[in-house]
Amino acid sequence: MPDNTKRLAAFASESPSLDLVTSTLRRAPMALQTLGDRWTLLILRDAFLGARRFSDFYRLTGAPHGTLAQRLKGLVAHGVLYRNPVGTGVSRYEYRLTGRGLGLTDFALCIWDWEHKWGGDSGMPEGLVHRVCGSLTTPTTVCSHCTRVAVLSDIQFEAGPGVASPLPGRGVSRRRDSHRLRSGPQVNRALHRVIDVFGDRWSSRLLAALFMGIRRFDELGTAIGISTNILSDRLRRLGVYGIVEQLRSAGEWGYHLTPAGLDLFPAVLAIHKWSNRWAAGPSGPALLLRHGPCGKPLDTRVVCSCCKKKLEPRDLELQNPKRHKPATSNRRR
């Protein structure tokens, strides 16, 4: 077994109490309700790559016709996409990202970077070029105040004003229907592994609980409000993906994030920031983050690893894409 001492030390800082984690996850932000669905994330992936028409999304996502129509309608209702009239007939509308949708740029960049590193051969382009400096770039998440790279061991979790708000009603339960993905040469298979993680409401909440320091099986179930059989299934699935493993620490077995799991932290930070800005309830966010090195509330941005400037969609292009042209979506916005 490899030496895990350094990795386990990343969790040595004081973790939030189980009560805080439970209160936070039971009040799962609207982000999980809006985006915590595999088909929805596939639609957003292709929207960032320039897809506009229903036929484009149908061809690229592999979603069933009715499922695609429902998810597009939901994204419009939540203000992530808007319908732009372009003509008559069946394709009389195109779907474009709103300001709220473009707010997901950092999240899109973080999951792209993770899949490029850990996803294996999933049809990913060879690299991402930052036109501003002309270099191949690795999206890097930093604190906006002190510009240090944001890492888990530097983050402090605090209760937000929404932690005592009424519990939300039970959301619509969606069955995992990935087996209904259509096959075909035009279906875009990029990002499928990371989308399987964030596109499942239980897996995404489990990931959040692990990042907040919950390790024991029973405490994970309590924090998330999940049955033991579903929890076992999600832990097994994350284990197959190489994201979670069982380790013995301080004389006790628990579930820990692997290096691949820890590399999902920037994506978690990005979706947390987006949720607090665009999807917090009327009482405000239930969870706040503080950056230990500078002592300020954590505000992240994703920058170029070479020139350190903030990455914007209009300034990026894919190097040697296997299926898609450069990401030119929303340049006029």
Written overview of the protein:
The chain has 333 residues and is α+β, with helices and mostly antiparallel strands. The chain has a domain at 5-35 and 103-165 and 189-319: Orthogonal Bundle (Arc Repressor Mutant, subunit A), CATH 1.10.10.10. The chain is 38% helix and 16% strand. The chain has 14 helices and twelve strands. The chain has a three-stranded antiparallel beta sheet with strand order 4-3-12, with no helix packed on it. Strand 9 and strand 10 form a beta hairpin. Helix 2 crosses helix 11, helix 4 (38-48) crosses helix 5 (54-61) and helix 8 (105-118) packs antiparallel against helix 14. The relative contact order is 0.21.
CATH superfamily placement of one domain: Winged helix-like DNA-binding domain superfamily/Winged helix DNA-binding domain
Give, in spatial order, the strands making up the sheet with the most strands: 4-3-12
> Alpha-carbon distance between the termini?
51 Å
Average predicted confidence as pLDDT: 84
Main sheet: strands, sense, barrel: 3 strands, antiparallel
CATH topology of one domain: Arc Repressor Mutant, subunit A
What CATH architecture label of one domain applies?
Orthogonal Bundle
Residues in helices, as a percent range: 25-40%
